[in-house]
Design a protein that fits this description.
Number of strands: 10
Shape: elongated
Distance between the termini: 57 Å
Structural class: alpha+beta
Protein name: Transcriptional regulator
Strand content: 15-25%
Number of domains: 2
Organism: Pseudomonas glycinae
Radius of gyration: 20 Å
InterPro entries: ArsR-like_HTH, HTH_ArsR_DNA-bd_dom, HTH_Metal-responsive_Reg, WH-like_DNA-bd_sf, WH_DNA-bd_sf
Amino acid sequence: MHAAHQDIGVSQVAAAIAEPARTKMLCSLMDGHARTATELASLADVSASTASAHLAKLKDLALVRLHVQGRHRYYSLADKRVAQALEALMVIGQNPAPAFKPHTPDRLQFARTCYDHMAGTLAVLLHDRLLEGGWLVETDEQAYRLSESGEALFEGLGVEVRDLSTLRRRFACPCLDWSMRRPHLGGSLGASLLQTALKRKWVTQDLDSRALTLTVQGRRELASRWGLVLPGAGRESSGRQLTDSTPGSLHAR
């Protein structure tokens, strides 16, 4: 009986997401910002009454959350599990194309959080640089280990590598980035990398979204420590955002 209820639940959620207008609404909330029904109606290109009906359905299924502030009503994704499901569907639903062009909001495309680790263009480049530099070694399709030089690299950043390996979760693994359709670093090592980057002010996190901002200090550290060369930016202040964040403008040395 329990399995039957689960099947029904899955089909109901899948049907809710599958409706094109509701898909647009959910995807528009992926940047972490809450939006009004009017804004979501415009983004989904539907009437206000239709948007209200869609949002009621999504709320009933715990896919969105309603926030009431005075006379204003805002909607956001219910939690990170909804974002996770949408990201997975974005990967599956993408049709192969000769040249992949991300359709992610700019402020999320370059760098963002993915659960407790880093995602986006910057994270994919860091992942590739760790493999290229021989610090990260692929053990199978879904797992990595650190080489001796890799352990030294992370321990030099204050990461207790041996402690991470004792946690009840995967140590290091590829996590497919939905905006790049290439892997970034997941697992406890990926989580530690994000915390290190935040602690050392290499990146800063938006207060109201999953977006991350690479600082000038971070750009310099990544170049000197890992040989990851990022182009100069218009704002040269150690806490300010790099404005040149298009995927094609970045490269690993």
